Amino acid sequence: MTTGLDVFDTTIQKTNLWLKEIMEELGWDDRRRALMAMRAVLHALRDRLDPKEAADLGAQLPVLVRGFYYEAWDPTDKPEKIRHKRDFLYKVDEGLINEPELDSEKITRAIFKVLKKRVAEGEVRDIKATLPEEIAAMWE
Question: With a threshold of 0.85, does the pTM exceed it?
Fold first, then answer.
């Protein structure tokens, strides 16, 4: 199905590629669950970054993914003072509220792996440099 508008068709295609990669990383076949997982990790990451770095990352996301990324964002009082991996994963868990059996660390690592592949290397380096070591280590 196409919309007839290149900008929409392209972003839908790119978003589906991202979701496919996430599903492959996690061994899932549920696109809705992959979208929820991506949103949860992106929101936790966005809120941990300072607003400029968050905007720099947002600029590299496909338009549709960017919409999910910025959904309900309030850059006031950012970055959040999340210094430990367990606190970051707790924030991811909040986005997975209806799926408590999911492994937030496994999901975070998978989403970071897709971001590392899809976002410019310099941007990934900048993001990792701003994160505490425990959180940055999940990009590996």
Answer: yes
